[in-house]
Specification:
174 residues; alpha+beta; 5-stranded mixed sheet; two-stranded antiparallel sheet; 5 helices; 7 strands; 32% helix; 29% strand
Length: 174
């Protein structure tokens, strides 16, 4: 994924239905100590994305979140419509002005230091013990989002948690 060579099969999707279907699966996967909440919204725009890869991406982020909350916590997956204006694009050059749906995966875990945050998307970078992670998860997330024409940002504070925001262009049809 991070080398941008995987084959994707993008299709327009209704994220409200997608997220509600994912919640039960994630709850079973992550265990009872993690409270999983998915939040959609009325009027949520469609995006065009490979559904299987989007699901793998969110599961990957959810497992990272679980690992950052060894004593339990809350995982929130939320989709919201966002319009990025020219000012936002100037301060975030990788995001062109336009309409996006942002999928946020947020946890109440241990968070990341600024040093870890600077390397988080690098292939093979990991803070996990040997045998407990390859360091490929976040680089695969990055590769998938970029290959889908989107953008991804990480917000994190030590002791407060992490939020990963994936921006996908609004699908307007043909």
């Amino acid at each position: 994924a991070f080398s941008r060579r995987q084959a994707l099969d993008p299709k327009p999707i209704n994220l409200n239905g997608f997220l509600s279907g994912l919640q039960e699966f994630l709850q079973r996967t992550l265990g009872e100590r993690i409270e999983v909440q998915t939040v959609g919204g009325a009027g949520l725009w469609q995006i065009e994305v490979d559904v299987n890869h989007l699901e793998s991406t969110i599961v990957n982020l959810a497992i990272n979140a679980r690992d950052a909350m060894p004593n339990g916590g809350k995982l929130t997956i939320e989709a919201t419509n966002v319009s990025a204006d020219d000012d936002y694009s100037r301060s975030n050059p990788e995001v062109t002005a336009g309409q996006y749906v942002v999928i946020s995966v947020s946890d109440t875990g241990s968070g990341m230091t600024p040093e870890v945050l600077n390397h988080a998307f690098e292939p093979f970078f990991t803070t996990k013990e040997p045998g407990h992670g390859t360091g490929l998860g976040l680089s695969q997330v990055y590769g998938f989002v970029k290959q889908s024409g989107g953008h991804v940002k990480i917000y994190s504070e030590v002791g407060e948690g992490t939020s990963i925001k994936m921006y996908f262009a609004r699908y307007v049809g043909i």
